[in-house]
Amino acid sequence: MLNVPSQSFPAPRSQQRVASGGRSKVPLKQGRSLMDWIRLTKSGKDLTGLKGRLIEVTEEELKKHNKKDDCWICIRGFVYNVSPYMEYHPGGEDELMRAAGSDGTELFDQVHRWVNYESMLKECLVGRMAIKPAVLKDYREEENKVLNGMLPKSQVTDTLAKEGPSYPSYDWFQTNSLVTIAIYTKQKDINLDSIIVDHQDDSFRAETIIKDFLYLIHIGLSHEVQEDFSVRVVESVGKIEIVLKKKENTSWDFLGHPLENHNSLIPRKDAGTEIVKPYTPVSGSLLSEFKEPVLPNNKYIYFLIKIYHTGLFTPELDRLQIGDFVSVSSPEGNFKISKFQELEDLFLLAAGTGFTPMVKILNYALTDIPSLRKVKLMFFNKTEDDIIWRSQLEKLAFKDKRLDVEFVLSAPVSEWNGKQGHISPALLSEFLKRNLDKSKVLVCICGPVPFTEQGVRLLQDLNFSKNEIHSFTA
Ligand code: NAP
Question: What EC number(s) would the UniProt record show (predicted)?
Fold first, then answer.
């Protein structure tokens, strides 16, 4: 079939349509295309009328520039002279004039969120909005500590400033409903993985990794914000914008007061010893009636963590208090959900906390694989007390007849009348019976490394193919 462009181009949900916000585009005069605009910006012509000087713009000053031939607009705290751009603007002059002499951030977000205005209007930059003089003082000298925009670099010791990367800073802007905290990292390789944002009640904390340093923003916000927030990164300039939603649409006089280590740049080696340990996220529960409701933006991650009292790492985790922080990386792993396609028999071999990857597998397999006939879990532990979620597993097996669970203990009390021992050919050959001779099978295995390695060898001896085995390795 030929793909013939229809009348309704751009397609109803295409980026072009979304981007234009359903507004009709205004025919541009000849010589006013995007390419012409780019050519003009590169021509070296003074587009701001300030001969390259950047100024601080007061609200009063901004208001004065509200005519077509003298039109300044503020977007996220930066002021642009958009008069030279008027004739090149696909949405037309009237649309730009809606924000003339004022803060156009909200309007811009509604209509042009996708536009890379920083680069498009680079040559039109007049400067940034002025910060009220009263709050430019170093907060350490002030009784009533408030934050309103950038704090001076003098808060950092000279050594850090000299030895560190070019010093980051931050700023904030507001609209009626949003507060944007912008972090200028001065690094072009910044991406979303470099930033961790936490906020709880009125305490806001953002940790940005900049090469070997951590840049911290830690603020007690002056007003309440909603739980929801978004983060975006403008990689080309190394800027991070964290957009918070105000609880009440009022104007904030100041951002808040500094909390511990606010606006400081700490060498990562001094931020404590960095320890990295992989953990598999689990669900809130195995049983659907106990499942947590799915929250917007998946704000909750559940981990099942075993504390080894003589260990180095988990006692530290055990000592964490509500309000403390850990950094969480993006997920890693190679398990593909496509392995479940047309699956009929699923066997799970878990030892100790090696049970954790099985949690979501069980949840998913029992609800989302129509072809599934049988799931069997063999769960190895030392003692009965070590069996994680035993009663949930028993309840689930009772509720769903496709699931069988067998517990195997290596150090049971004498009264234990279940299976005993370690993973072995005898235990496996009895357990791994396929439903039908040629049924599609998957065996997942996870536990201490030697357990998993031995298990994989035994499975191969029992003629399971590579595709039929998935081992989780820490
Ligand atoms: P554990 O309680 O020490 O051991 C659980 C069971 O496995 C016990 O019955 C134990 O028998 C047996 N076992 C231990 N080593 C064995 C070996 N070499 N051969 C045969 N059986 C053996 O387990 P844990 O402390 O919870 O540790 C679980 C391990 O799983 C950790 O190493 C963790 O890193 C790993 N894990 C990996 C992932 C992943 O890769 N995604 C996820 C979760 C956990 P004994 O009584 O003889 O010790």
Answer: 1.6.2.2
Sequence letter at residue 357: P
* Residue 47 contacts residue 84 (beta carbons within 8 Å): yes
Per-residue DSSP letters for 53-72?
--EEE-HHHHHH-EETTEEE
**CA of 398 relative to ligand 1 center, distance in Å:** 27
Give the number of other CB atoms < 10 A from CB of residue 290. Answer: 11
User: What is the number of the ligand 1 atom nearest to the C-alpha of 333?
Assistant: 41
Output the pLDDT for position 5.
27
467 ligand 1 Cβ < 6 A: no
**Which residue among 312, 451, 457, 458 has the greatest number of ligand 1 atoms within 8 angstroms of its CB, and so is best to mutate?**
451
Relative to beta strand 102-103, strand 70-75 is parallel
User: Ligand 1: does its nearest atom lie under 6 Å from the Cβ of 445?
Assistant: no
* Digit-coded pLDDT (tens) for 429-473: 999 987 777 889 999 999 998 999 999 999 999 999 999 999 997
Task: For residues 104 and 80, give the distance between their C-alpha atoms in angstroms, rounded to a whole number.
Answer: 10
Q: Is the CB–ligand 1 distance for residue 455 below 6 Å? A: no
pLDDT band at 35 (very low <50, low <70, confident <90, very high): confident
Residue 379, token pair as written in the block: 């769960």
Q: What is the three-class DSSP state of 438? A: coil
Closest by CA to 217, choosing from 192, 249, 248, 185, is: 185
* Residue 446 CB less than 6 A away from ligand 1: yes
pLDDT digits (tens, 9 = 90+) for 69-107: 999 999 888 899 999 999 988 778 888 899 999 988 887
Distance CA 146, CA 165 (A): 27
Q: Pick the closest to residue 266 from 323, 313, 208, 220 (CA basis).
A: 208
Calpha distance 312→308 (Å, rounded): 8
